[in-house]
Amino acid sequence: MLYAVLCYNTEDVTSAWTKEQDDKVMRDLTAVQRKYVEAGKLGPVARLLPTTAATTLRHRPGETVVIDGPFAETKEQLLGFYLIDCASLDEALEFARELSAANPAAGSYEIRPLSLYKPGELAP
């Protein structure tokens, strides 16, 4: 089963890291990823730029509006995601626990099963 592991944290915290702190976190996360890559379980990984770089398109019947950034009043922002192929939710949770242990900032990881749709193919 494919799972999306969505990484949330407070941008104010992570953007305040020095280059050295950020590099260390990325090295530690890469170490966690390595065993999943070697097992052929880890798919794409994306680190999102800050929400200040985002644009949102909102559609309502008869109206489409484009605004800067996301429009959400949350304490945590989506900072990135992993796609991982796991035999069970427990395995996906273990991956998220390892990521959490490698990350010094308090945050959260949402684990969500997903269906993969490929362009040009009918949905299952």
UniProtKB/TrEMBL annotation:
Protein's recorded name: YCII-related domain-containing protein
Domain of life from the UniProt record: Bacteria
Domain spans labelled YCII-related: 1-114
SUPFAM superfamilies: Dimeric alpha+beta barrel
UniProt xrefs under Pfam families: YCII
Organism per entry: Sinorhizobium fredii (strain NBRC 101917 / NGR234)
Similarity annotation: Belongs to the YciI family.
InterPro entries on file: Dimeric_a/b-barrel, YCII
